[in-house]
Amino acid sequence: MKIYSIREKNYEGKKVFLRVDFNVPIKNGVITDDTRITSTIPTIDYLLSHRARLIIASHLGRPEGKVSPEFSLKPVAERLSEILKKEVKFAPDCIGDEVKKLVNSLKEGEILLLENLRFHSEEEKGDENFAKELASLCDAYVNDAFGTCHRKHSSVYTITKFVNDVAAGFLIEKEVSALSKLLINPERPFLLILGGAKVIDKINMLKNLLDKVDTIITGGVMAYTFIKAKNWEVGDSKVEEEAIPVAKEIIKEINKRHLEFHTPLDHIIAQKISEDATFIATERGTVPHGWIGVDIGPQAIEEYIDCINRAKTIFWNGPMGIYEIEKFAKGTIEIAKAIAKTNAFSVIGGGDSVAIVQKAGVADKISHICTGGGASLEFLEKGSLPGIDVLKKE
Ligand code: ADP
Ligand code: MG
Fold first, then answer.
1. Could you list the active site residues?
2. Measured in angstroms, how far is the CA atom of residue 281 from the centroid of ligand 2?
3. What residue segments make up the domains of the chain, in order of their start?
4. Rounded-to-integer distance, Cα 97 and Cα 126, Å
5. How far is the CA of 259 from the centre of ligand 2 (A)?
6. Homologous superfamily assigned to 6-173
7. Closest C-alpha to ligand 1, atom 14
8. Which residue's C-alpha comes closest to atom 16 of ligand 1?
9. Fold of 185-381
10. pTM of the entire structure?
């Protein structure tokens, strides 16, 4: 795949609109993991040292088209400034006259971070007029927001209709090259580990990955959705009901293809989701009435580690349990450690998944840490993404 690279462009004195994915986890106003910021630094440094006038834009969370202070990118501007040891100006919006003024006063090598793109509902609709407004700020467009490339949003997709000079940043280049390795003759067995909560977002992609992988292991809400699809008891565990019909189809396909597929052999269950909850391990792969599955159990950990040890290629998205609560993080941490110990080519994708790998202190033992969850799954499914297609050379 040939995409325009920033290396082959001249940015001197140009207003460059850089779309990044600064959708970092924020708890009580504090950024708890800044991987998504640090992973775009090579591109930012390159553009600054090539004397661009740099406009940076991102989304944060799901403010649903409304201005809401809790989703402001202000804390991100501060963190970025600390990392770069350089002033980062901050614009109160991402379009409009005031923003234009700020952009026009930018000098070479200076940075302006725009406020959350998703404060405008047009962004997620891929609206052309909004995209034109964004395009009118700049002379050149660079995309390094890999985590958003599966969306045809204005700042990722539509904007490229209105800017001639487009290119991919280093992060997108790196992601594309690592994920392509999973698609082009991966060493087998190829193990897919799927957990987390966004089942509806991810399950259709899983359907299309069945002819690429050999083994699938599941955790989190993904696992409970499959367990329920098998008509097994899940108690009060969180399930995405809408995904059950697809889950049923997938189980049929898996059986037809004789793939190895696992839901957890046992679970850690609790009666409430909180730090002070008491918890026990089940003996079986089901969850009794009145209880919530919060993590995979010890037998499941053992079985999953065995799958990991046999694999030559691994892709992991989504935690095995409610890892934000220390007591329920064990399954996820053990899986992360096991992957770190293998010699398999391993790729981990997804905001939460990456946060765990950092927390487990094993990030440097993973072949590639991918900054997009849904994006990486869709890339595996389709071999490209809408936001990457628009950066391709004819
Ligand atoms: P990623 O960001 O890596 O793509 P997701 O966003 O899909 O992953 O899922 C992460 C979320 O899944 C976490 O907030 C975690 O608490 C939640 N989760 C995992 N297991 C469960 C469970 N059994 N019940 C409810 N939520 C869960
Ligand atoms: Mg997440």
1. 36, 198, 351, 374
2. 25
3. 6-173, 185-381
4. 21
5. 27
6. Phosphoglycerate kinase, N-terminal domain (3.40.50.1260)
7. 322
8. 322
9. Rossmann fold (3.40.50)
10. 0.83
